[in-house]
Amino acid sequence: MGKYIRKRLLQAIPVVFGITLLTFFIMKLAPGGPLGGMISPRSSSEALQRAQEKLGLNQPIIVQYWNWLKELVQGNFGYSTFNGQNVLEMILERLPATLLLTVTSFVFSFVVGVPLGVYSATHKYSKGDYGLTVFSFIGISIPSFFFGMGMIYIFAMKLKWFPTSGFGSALFRGTGFQLFLHKLRYLVMPALVMSLANLSSVMRFARSSMIETLNQDYIRTARAKGLAERAVIYRHALKNSLIPVITIFGQSIPNLFGGAYITEKVFGWPGMGLLGVDAIGNRDYQVLMGLTLFTAILVLPGNLLADIMYSAVDPRIRY
Amino acid sequence: MEMTAKKRTSLFKTDGWKRFRKNKLALVGTALICILILAAVFAPLITQNDPYESLKNESGAILKNASPAESGTVLGTDSVGRDEFSRLVYAARVSLSVGLVSVGISTIVGVLVGAVAGYFGGRADMILMRTVDVVNCFPVMFLIIIIATILKPSIYNIMVIMGLCNWTATARLVRGEILRVREMEYVQAAISLGASSGRIIFSHVIPNVIAPIIVEATLQMAHAVLTEASLSYLGVGVQLPTASWGNMLMNANNLATLTTRPWQWVPAGTCILLSVLSINFIGDGLRDAFDVKQKK
User: Fold this and answer.
1) B117 within 8 A of B175, measured Cβ to Cβ
2) Closest by alpha carbon to A190, among A289, A92, A122, A265?
3) List of long-range contacts for B185-193, beta carbons under 8 Å, 24+ apart
C-alpha cells in the first residue's frame, strides 16, 4: 500500500509540471503574458525595472517559465490586472464560501444518489425505477442556471421560503445557532442546484453497478442457501457495488468546481466562481489564471485520494 | 468467424437497430431532435419577424418587453423589442452547430490521440496519457473560460476551444478499445501481411471500435450543447446580437424579468433542456443498441 501511494505521488509530479506548463502557454496568449501580471502595479518605476530584470522578461522562454514557476511556488499568483490586488489573497478570501458550497453538494449528491440508485437496481423495471431514470436524465440535461432561475422564481419569489441570493443578510443580528439557521437558508438552493447533475450521475452509476453485482455468482450462492433478500442486498451486494462508485468520486471533483461559475452567478454566492464572473467582465486575465491554476492543483489531491481509496477497498487490485 | 466474413447488412436490418427501435425514450429523443433540426434549417420559413430587428407598434414606438398578447407575436419581445420566437428558432442554428462542430473536433483529436497511444504503446502512450491526466485536472469550464476570454469570444473560437478541451474521454476510450483489439487475430494477420501502421489503425482497428466512439460522441454532443449554453450565459460564449439559447437567458437574469416576464427565459431554457435531454436519450439508446459497456 505504502509503495502504491509513493508511486502515485511520484506520478503526480509530471502532472503538476504539465498543469503549470499548460497555464503558462495559455497566459502567453494574454496581453502582458504570464510574467507581466507578476509585478505589482503599485511598485515604483525603479522597483518595476528591478522586477522586470529579476523575472527575465528578455530571456528565452524556458528561463521565463522557470522564473514564473519560482514565483508561483513562493505564492505569487500575480496581481489583478483590474485593481492591482494580490490574486492569491483574493482567491483565498473567496475559498471558504466555495468550499462550503462544493462540499455540501458533493456530500448531498452521494448521500442521496447512492440509495436512490440502489433502490432503482433492486426494483428494476418497476414504476419507481422508470421514474428515477427519467429524473436522472433530466438532472444531467437541465442547464443549472435554468434550474436555478426556476428555483428562485418558485421558492424565493412565489413561496418566499428562501432568500433569492447572497450568503447572509448584513442586517441579521443573531448569533450561534440562529446565525447558523440564517446562513443555512441561503445555502439550500445553491447547494441543491449545484448537486443535481452530480447526484443524477451518481444515481445512474450506482444503479448499473448494483445490477451488475446482483448478477454475480456469489449473490446466486447467497440466495441459494436461503438467505433473506434483504441480507443478500445489504450484506453481500451493497459493499461490492459501491467500489466502482468511488471512481466517480474523483471525476466529480473538477465537475463540481466547474459548476461554481454558474451556480454562484445565479445565486450571487460570494465564492471563487463569482470572482471569476467579475474577472470575465473586467478582462482580468491574471485572476482567471489564478483561479484555473488553483482549482487544477486542488483537484489533484482529490483524484489521488480517490485512487488510494479505490485500491484500499478492493483487495483484488494489486500494484 | 463466419459472421465477420459476411457482407455488411443494411443498417435498418441489424439487431442494433431493432433494439434501438424498442427504446421508447430514444425514439422520443430522435423525434424531438429532428423537429429542432428542421426548425433550425427552415428558420426563415417558420418565423414572421427578423431576429435582429426591433418591432414597432403603429405609432412607431419600439415594443420593448412586450408580452405575447401585447406584441402579437408567439412569445413576446425581449428588452430591445426583438421577436423572442424568431430569436429562439435562429438560436437553434447556433446552439446545434456549435455542438456539432466542437464534438467533431474533439472526436477527431480524441481518436487520433487514443489510436496512437493504444497502438504504439511505450513512450508515446506514456506521454499522451500523462497529457490526458493534466487536461483532466482542470475543471474544463475554467479552462474554456480563460481561453475564450483571452482570445475574445466568438462562435468560431468557442467551437475550436470546446473541441480542443473535451477530447480526453474519447482518447481514453479509443486507447482502451485499441488495446483490446490489437491482439486479435485479424490485426495480427494484417501485421504479418506487412500492412503499414496507418492502414492497420484506420482500416482494420477503428472500424471495429466505431460503435463506442459514436456513443461517446453523441453523449459529448449533449454535453457540448449544455457547455455552449453555460458559456453564453456567462457572456464568454456566443456574443450578442447573435442569439443563442444561453445568451437569451443571460439577458433575462434579473429579478424583474424573472418574475414578470417569463416569456423571456422559460422558452429558451426549455429548448436547452429538451435538446440536451433528447440527445442524451439517443446516446443512451445507441449504447444499449450497440451493447457498449458503460464506462462512466
Assistant:
1) yes
2) A265
3) B186/B4
Mind listing the pLDDT tens digit for each residue in B81-106?
787 888 888 889 888 999 999 999 99
Same domain, A69 and A107: no
Is B136 in CB contact (< 8 Å) with chain A?
A: yes
Cross-chain Cβ contact A15/B151 below 8 Å? no
Domain assignment present for residue A38? The answer is yes
The answer on A212 and A299 residing in a single domain is yes
Domain for residue A83, yes or no?
Answer: no
Q: Is B25 on the interface with A (CB under 8 A)?
A: yes
Q: Say whether pTM exceeds 0.80.
A: yes
- CA-based diameter of chain A, in Å? 85
Same domain (yes/no): A108, A256: yes
Q: Which domain holds residue A45?
A: 20-73
Residues of B whose CB is below 8 A from A140 = 222, 280
CATH code of the domain covering residue A146: 1.10.3720.10
A135 and A179 inside one domain = yes
Residue range of the domain that includes B117: 70-290
Looking at the structure of chain A, the number of domains it has is 2
Q: What's A132-166 look like in SS3?
A: HHHHHHHHHHCCHHHHHHHHHHHHHHHCCCCCCCC
Q: Strand locations in chain A, DSSP E? A: none
End residue of a domain, out of A38, A56, A73: A73
Q: Hey, is the C-beta of B139 within 8 angstroms of any chain A C-beta?
A: yes
Which residues of chain B are within 8 Å of residue A297 when distances are taken between CB atoms?
A: 137
Domain tally for chain B? 1
- Residue among B130, B135, B272 minimizing CB distance to A143: B272
Span A41-89, pLDDT tens digits: 666 777 777 777 766 666 777 888 888 888 888 888 888 878 888 888 8
Residue A319 lies in a domain: no
Contact B294 A208 (CB under 8 A): yes
Looking at residue B168, its amino acid is T
Which residues 180-239 in chain B show a CB within 8 A of chain A? 222, 226, 229-230, 233-236
Test the B interface: residue of A19, A106, A137, A303 with most B CBs within 10 Å: A137
Q: Which of A143, A152, A261 sits opposite B269 (nearest CB)?
A: A143
